[in-house]
Amino acid sequence: MNPLNQRVILRYPRFVGLVLCAGLAASLLGALAARRFQLKATRARVEQEAAIAQENLDYTIQAYRDILLGFRGHSTAGLGLNRERFHQYFASLDLRTHHPGLLSVSYGVEIPGPGRDRAEQALRREMGDPAFTIHPPGARPGYFVLLFAEPSESNRGSIGRDTRSLPGQAQDIDRARDSGALVLSGPMKVLQYDGPDPGLLMRLPLYRGSPATLEERRANFVGCINGAFRVQDLITEALGKEALRKLDVHITDAGPWGEPGPPLQLYGTPLAGGHLLERTLEVFGRTWCFEFRARREFAGSAEWTVPVGIGVSGGLITLLLWGLMASLAQTGQRARLLALRMTEQLREEESRTEAMALAVPDPVAVLDEDGRFLRIYGQHPTVLGVSAGALMGTTIPRALPRDAADILLDAVRKALDTHRLQTACFELSTSQGRCDYEGRILRMGQPLDGKACVVLSIRDITERNRAEEIARTKQKLESLGVLAGGIAHDFNNFLTAILGHVNMAQELLEPGSGAEPMLKRAEASVLRAAELAHQMLAYSGRGSLKVDLLDLNLMVMEMTELLAVSIAKKADLTFHLEPGLPMIMADAVQIQQVVMNLVTNASDAIAGGTGSIAIETRHLEAGRDQLEERFPGQGLEPGAYAALLVSDTGCGMDPETLKRIFDPFYTTKSTGRGLGLSALLGILRGHKAGIHISSEPGRGSRFEILFPSAGPAPSRDPAPAGAGAEGQRLTGLALVADDEPMVRSIVVDFLEHRGMEVLAAVDGLEAVELFTRHLGRVDLVLLDITMPRMDGNEAFRAIRALDPRIPVILLSGFSARDVATPPPGTAPAVFVQKPFRTVDLEEAVRKVRQV
C-alpha cells in the first residue's frame, strides 16, 4: 500500500468527524439565530400591538372623562341642571351607540344630615311618589344622594341612593371634593350591574364659583357628575375584538398613584410565559398594571418552522457533505451545488425581509445617532417631499428646514436616551403645498456599525389636521350661536317690559303733553335695540324668516342708490349681474342686510383711499368635490346655485383676522362694536347658504355666497283683512303665564287696563293648574314659550287637551319656529314675538278671539 495513501486513509475518519461536528454546530447556531430573529420580530409586533391597545384604552378612558366634562360644562354655562336638561343632553350624545361600555351617567349632591327631610320632599315632588325616601334608611351625619341618572330605565333604583353608605365610596367622594379633579375608583360592585365582573366609578366634582384652596373647595362643594362602567365592556370597546384575538390581556389596580398597594383584579387572569410584556399606566390618580401576551395565532408557525427548517437543512447539508466526502466522489461538483442552494436560501430570506417592509403603508427609515438616513423601506417615490434616493446617506439637518430638523432630531435623541417610543409633529413646504407630518421614532435593539440607531416611520397627517380644524371651527361657531340666542332671548324680555310701560304711559298722557315726544323717542330707542336682538337671533340661526321667491338681480338693482351713498366717496362701485339668474327662496330684508354688510365692510377696507368694489351674480352648477373643497363643513348639497360675489381692492386680511372675522363684536375698526359679519353668518345658516372668503394683506378681499336655486314660485292666497279696532274695551277672563316678572306684570296691567280680569302664573305647570281650576270660565290664554318646570309648548298642548277651542297667544323672544304645532282638530294659536308694542298685543288678542 502506498504510504501516502495510507496516511490519507488514516487521517480521513478524523477529518470527516471534524467536518461533521463543525457542520452540526453551525446548523444549530443558525437555527438558534433564526429563532432569536423570529422571537424578536414577534416581540416587536407584540410591543406594537400592546402600545396601540394601551393608547386606545387611554383614549377611551379620556373620552369617558370628556363626557363628564361636557355634563359639568353644561351645568356651569348658566343653564343649571335639572332632570329634563340632564336627560336631553344625555340623549343628544347617543352614548349607547358610541360608548356601550358606559353603564350610566349620574348627578349626585352633598346633603348635610339636617337637610335630609327637605331633600326627600323635593325628590317626592319630582318623582311623583309620596312614599319615596332616601335609601338606605337611617340617620347619618351627611348624605351623597343621586338626583339624576341616565339611562333612566336601567337606573330607577339608583335615584335617591345615598352612595356615602356604600363600602369605599365615601373616601372617593371626599377625594374628588378635596382634589377638584376627576377621581377614578378602584374595582368595585356598581349598582347598574349584577354580574361577577368588577365595575369602576369616575367622579367629577362640581362647585359654586371657582374655589382655589382646599378650604374653599370644601365650603363650595355641590356634588359630582358620576360615570359608571364595567371593566369588561371598557376593554372590549377600547381594544376591539380583533386585538383581543391577538393578545391575552391581564389588568390589575395597584391603588393610588405613588401609593402602591396589593393588586386588585380588573380584567383577565395572571399571565406567564410566552411573549409577556408588562406596562404601567396612571389613570386619573390610580396605577393600572398591564400584562400582554401574544396568542399562538398571533405569533404563527414561523417562530418554529423557520429555525427548525434552517437547523434541519444545515444538518442534512452536513450529513450530505459527510456522505460525499466519505464516498470520495464528485466532491467539487456537489460542494458547488450546496453553495448555490445556500445562496438561494439567503436570497429568499432577504426577499422575505424586504416584503415585510413593503407591507408597511408608511415610509420606514433607519437612522443612526447623528440623524443620518442609512436605509429607507417601502415603495415611496418621495419621503418628506424629497426623493428617497436623495435622502440616503444624508443627515436630517441637511435634508429638512431648520425648524422641522430641530423637532425631529430632538425626538431622535429622546428615543435614544429613554428607549421609549417618541412622536414628533412638524410641517414642510413641498411641491404639493404645506404638508403636516407625524414621525414615530423607536430605538433599535442592536447598534449598526458600532452606532446606536433608531427606526423612523413617517405619516402624512395633512388631511387629518385639516378635518380636525374644520370640526373645531364648526363647534366654536355653534357654541357662539347658542350664547347669542340666549342673550337675545333675555334681552327681548327686558325690552318687552320697557316698551310695554312706554306704551301704557303714552295712553295715559293728556293730549299735547310735553312728555309725549320723549316717550316717542324712548319707544324708537327700544325698537332700535330690538333690531340688535334680532341680529343676535339671526347669528344663532333662530331668527324669524319671511321666506319667499326672490330675484337676486332685481333686489341688487333696487339697492343701487342705497349702496352708492353708503360707501366711501373715493370708492368705485360696479355691478356684473348675470341675466337669467335662478330665483332663490329667501327673506328679502335679511338678504338686503347681507349685501349691505358686505359692501360696507368692503368700503371700510378701502380706508379712505381710492379703490373699487364689485358686486357680481352668476349661475353655478356645483359638484360635491367643488363644494367640499371651497365650502367645507357647511352641509351644501350638489346642484344648482345662485352665486353672489362681493370683492374689493382694499387692505385685505391676514390669516389671523380671517379666523376671527365671524366672531360677535370683533372688529378691526377703531369705532363700532356691532355684530357685523357674525349676524351675516347666522342669516346664511338660516337660508342653508354657504360662504367662502379669499383675502391677502394688500390685495383685497373676495366674499362668495351660494344660495340654493329655488323651483317655480308657489301660488299665494290673499291675506285676510284684519278686524277689530284699537283702544276698545276687552272683556272676559284671561290667563297669563310668564316666568319673567317684568313681562308678566306689563301684560297683566295692559289687559286689566283694557277691561279684562286676569289670572297670573309663573310657569306652565301653574298655568295648567289655574286653567283646570277655572275650566269653562277662561276666555283667553297667553303663554311664554320658555319657562321652568313646564314650558309654553307643553302647557299649550295640555290646555288644548282640556279645551280644544280656547284662544291661545304664544309669546317668545325667539322666532315662531319654536312654537309647537297645535293638536289636530284644535284652533290655531297666534304668535307674538318679543319685544312687542301694546297695540301689537291688542291686535293679537282681537285676532285670536275671532278665530
Whole-angstrom Rg: 39 Å
What CATH architecture of the largest domain would you give? 2-Layer Sandwich
Count of discrete alpha- or pi-helical segments spanning 4 or more residues = 25
What ranges have pLDDT less than 50 throughout 5 or more consecutive residues? 1-11, 670-675, 712-726
Please identify which CATH superfamily of the largest domain we are dealing with: CHASE domain
Distance between the termini: 139 Å
The largest sheet is: 5 strands, antiparallel
Lateral strand order in the biggest sheet: 2-1-5-4-3
The helix-and-strand class reads: alpha+beta
Give the CA-based shape: flat
CATH topology of the largest domain: Beta-Lactamase
Beta strand count = 28
Estimate the helix proportion, in percent.
40-55%
Number of domains: 4
**What share of residues are in beta strands?**
15-25%
List its salient traits.
single chain; alpha+beta; Beta-Lactamase; 5-stranded antiparallel beta sheet; 25 helices; disordered N terminus; transmembrane helix; phosphoprotein; PAS; CheY-like_superfamily; HATPase_dom
Task: Explain what the structure shows.
With 851 residues, the protein is of the alpha+beta class. It folds into four domains: 60-292, Beta-Lactamase (2-Layer Sandwich), CATH 3.30.450; 364-460, PAS domain (Beta-Lactamase, 2-Layer Sandwich), CATH 3.30.450.20; 548-708, Histidine kinase-like ATPase, C-terminal domain (Heat Shock Protein 90); 733-850, Response regulator (Rossmann fold, 3-Layer(aba) Sandwich). It contains 25 helices and 28 strands. It has a five-stranded antiparallel beta sheet with strand order 2-1-5-4-3. A five-stranded antiparallel beta sheet has the order 11-10-16-15-14, sandwiched between helices. β26 (780-784), α24 and β27 (808-812) form a beta-alpha-beta unit. α9 (302-327) runs antiparallel to α10 (331-358). The relative contact order is 0.05. One of its GO terms (cellular component) is membrane. This is histidine kinase. It is found in: Membrane.
